[in-house]
Write a structure and sequence with these properties.
The chain is α+β, with helices and mostly antiparallel strands. It has seven helices and ten strands.
């Protein structure tokens, strides 16, 4: 848990692995970091990181637009890793698989999103936090369904890329927001009664 305070150089991160730190510092997706290349002792280690820039840095970040401030915070974390963890990195161009998400021929069955109405189940799972546009529901025993409320294609692309472990490019041409339920399995009623099928916060 934890991250930089908004438009601030103050960082507090609790129970972060080296995987979390590196992907955050470089702005990587999880599939872009070769986890197996990291020594076992580093994979198992968890860190608590507390850091704060000087007064001039604080003042500069406070005046920046949100996106630009977030990039500066990312660079600050990278500098911290290079200094305290002695992290060294280089860039390579590698060939790999890329998937295209394309629209089916004919009329799409995606439904335009309606005003989101939170269910009691969703309120219990997320409380005061915003309900995500796309989330899983189910368990590892019965597999998961995907629930979408006002979901954009970019949300689907991000989810698919994480599952495939490769980049996914949106070539659907869809620009709206959609509601849908994607069922990945058929659950027997006996399983459904025993299953904790509450939403799974990402």
């Amino acid at each position: 848990t934890g991250w930089f305070q908004p438009n601030s150089s103050t960082l507090r991160a609790e129970n972060w692995s080296i995987f979390n730190l590196v992907t955050a510092a470089y702005g990587l997706k999880s599939y872009q970091l070769d986890w197996d290349s990291i020594p076992v002792e580093l994979r198992r280690a968890m860190y608590m990181v507390e850091a704060k820039g000087d007064a001039s840095t604080q003042e500069t970040l406070a005046k920046l637009p949100k996106k630009q401030a977030a990039l500066e915070q990312q660079h600050m974390l990278l500098a911290l890793l290079e200094d305290r963890f002695k992290l060294k990195a280089h860039f390579e161009i590698l060939q790999g698989d890329v998937f295209n998400l394309v629209a089916p021929k004919g009329e799409t069955k995606l439904l335009n999103a309606k005003a989101p109405a939170s269910t009691a189940e969703q309120i219990k799972a997320w409380g005061d936090r915003p309900i995500p546009a796309l989330y899983q529901q189910g368990s590892s025993r019965t597999e998961f369904d995907y629930i979408a409320h006002q979901c954009q294609i970019s949300d689907i692309v991000e989810m698919l890329a994480g599952q495939f472990g490769h980049p996914v490019i949106d070539k659907t041409g869809f620009t709206g927001k959609y509601d849908f339920v994607l069922k990945t399995h058929e659950t027997r009623e006996s399983d459904r009664r025993d299953d904790d099928s509450s939403p799974v916060p990402p």
